[in-house]
UniProtKB/TrEMBL annotation:
Keyword field: Hydrolase, Signal
One example of a Gene Ontology biological process annotation: antibiotic catabolic process
Record-given protein name: MBL fold metallo-hydrolase
Family: Belongs to the metallo-beta-lactamase superfamily. Class-B beta-lactamase family.
Length: 293
């Protein structure tokens, strides 16, 4: 395994190579109904939606870089969407972190020719998952930053240690003015901050603010979940986190238990932020557990 401990530059020419779910049958049936769609963001970058974390595609003159892999059951659909865009070979697959909805398809894309790149902590996380196919484990890792030179364009990977997890990375397509934020961005919904995998609320805020500082107002942002976004959308997420955390802190000062907080709920302005995976109750518990850990 090649470990990149400092920022370095690679070219595609150097790269060689050919959750909590329903029962398996039901899950497969659900995946069969998934529609994979590609949206062009710039001359070279696309956003692909399907099931799980959003995918980013960078289409260079000599190959394709994919960011995140969604679920193995829909890999064929993702590859078909890729082939509708280009016949260039898939050469690199970058994982933004270790969660299954971002890495489950890794092995299928390795079989299609990709070399997997991720933060070094992704490797033990996925290898400890009995449902993960080890063929898809990252073989190029980094500890802080990694720069990739692809067909004359620079792709920059930046790790954030205590954000959504302990192994998050954002992927900045600097020449295209596009960034893939991974699960540092759940658009207009309560985020999942995985406290059990090294995530923290303050680290999540810090990572977003650090990243936003290098973006222009018109930078296109591929969120981990949700539709295409911009800097103002991301700032709205930060504002929600800060304000709801303060609500929970004040309830704690009033002596409420977490059960009483859940019963009381958050301010009405946040009601539309609940969604299937992280509803208001789970978000309150996340904030409470983060502050009391």
């Amino acid at each position: 395994m090649s470990k990149m401990r400092t920022a370095l530059v690679l070219t595609l020419a150097m790269i060689t190579g050919t959750a909590l779910l329903a029962p398996a049958a039901q899950a497969q049936a659900t995946m069969a109904d998934v529609e994979v769609k590609a949206q062009q963001l710039s001359d070279k970058v696309y956003m692909v939606t399907g099931a799980g974390g959003n995918i980013g595609l960078f289409v260079g003159d000599d190959g394709v870089v994919m960011v995140d892999a969604q679920y193995a059951a829909i890999s064929d659909k993702i590859l078909a969407a890729l082939r509708d865009i280009t016949q260039q070979p898939l050469k690199l697959l970058v994982n933004t972190h270790h969660h299954r909805d971002h890495v489950d398809g890794n092995a299928n894309f390795v079989a299609a020719g990709a070399v997997v790149v991720a933060h070094e902590k992704v490797v033990p996380r996925v290898m400890n998952d009995e449902n993960f196919d080890p063929v898809g484990a990252p073989t190029i890792t980094f500890s802080d930053k990694l720069s990739l030179r692809v067909a004359g364009d620079m792709l920059q990977l930046q790790h954030f240690p205590t954000a959504h997890t302990d192994n998050d990375a954002v992927v900045w397509f600097a020449d295209e003015n596009v960034i893939h934020a991974g699960d540092l961005f759940f658009k207009d919904r309560f985020p999942f901050i995985d406290l059990n995998s090294g995530g923290t609320v303050q680290g999540y805020i810090d990572a977003i603010e650090h990243t936003m500082a290098m973006l222009a107002d018109d930078t296109q942002i591929i969120p981990g979940h949700g539709s295409l976004a911009n800097k103002a959308d991301w700032q709205r997420l930060v504002s929600m986190i800060v304000m709801t955390r303060e609500e929970v802190r004040l309830m704690m000062l009033d002596g409420l238990t977490v059960e009483q907080m859940v019963e009381q709920g958050l301010a009405e302005q946040w009601q539309d932020w609940s969604w299937g995976f992280i509803n208001e109750e789970r978000w309150i518990r996340t904030l409470y557990n983060d502050m009391t850990s």
